Amino acid sequence: MKDIPPKPLAPMIEVEDASGTRKRLSIYSEEGFAALTELWVRSGWERKFTYEITWLGIPVIQLPEDIILLQELIYKVRPDVIIECGTAHGGTAIFCASVLELIGRGRVLTIDIEVRKYNKLAIMSHPMSTRLTLIEGSSVEQSTLDRVKGLVHPGEKVMVLLDSNHTRSHVSRELALYAPLVTPESYIIVYDGVMECLVDAPHGSPAWADDNPSMAVRDFLAGHPEFEHDPYYGRLAATYCPGGYLKRKRPEGNRPSTR
């Protein structure tokens, strides 16, 4: 009878919790997977991993997991308008426009306080620019909001992405201004709540413990019962917007009967 080789031990990871207690976890356990994911996100953020990713030639500055789930959400909601606060290089706007192009409907309104010359040239010369309007101005200025409202037609489905200034006060202001534009059964997505987990990172900041988008989300949800966090879009675990997928509920009187 041949010797049966011993089953290899499950790889382990050692972690330390907030109290300083150390424990060893199997990487195949739920707790081990969560710990590995957190470490990967933290390490990748420090190395500016997302700056290596492009979409159709334009830097997108998003985690691949977040981009894939955004695609799922756009396909599910099929919005007529996606409002994006925070254009940067324009990759996320181009991504959204390309998904809308495949669906065959919709357009993107992307807002930034300043779009650099060469970024603007790259965005506006892109084939997907036909589904995109670039708005320069502060996302929290009334004149900017008025322009956005003027480009949204009555009865259109609206989705909103918040990815500009990531302070608690600025995100709170954006939520107050743009959440009313989100239609029932659609979403407002708040990016970079991950800052809350990066307080002790080499390029993090102790101020982020309280001054971050996740705190703005909690403040908002506490006073807006018409919105709820949808955990389904955090199921890949690796994300820069934990708790940031906020769904506008269907009004009570318009909900389908369960009978």
What features would you describe in this structure?
With 259 residues, this protein is of the alpha/beta class. 32% of the residues lie in helices and 18% in strands. The protein contains 7 helices and 11 strands. The protein has helices spanning 30-46, 64-77, 91-103, 117-124, 142-150, 168-178, 213-223, and strands spanning 12-16, 22-26, 54-55, 58-59, 81-85, 107-112, 132-136, 158-162, 187-190, 227-229, 245-248. The strands form 3 sheets. Strands 7-6-5-8-9-11-10 form a 7-stranded mixed β-sheet, sandwiched between helices. A two-stranded antiparallel ribbon has the order 1-2. The model has no long low-confidence stretch (mean pLDDT 94).
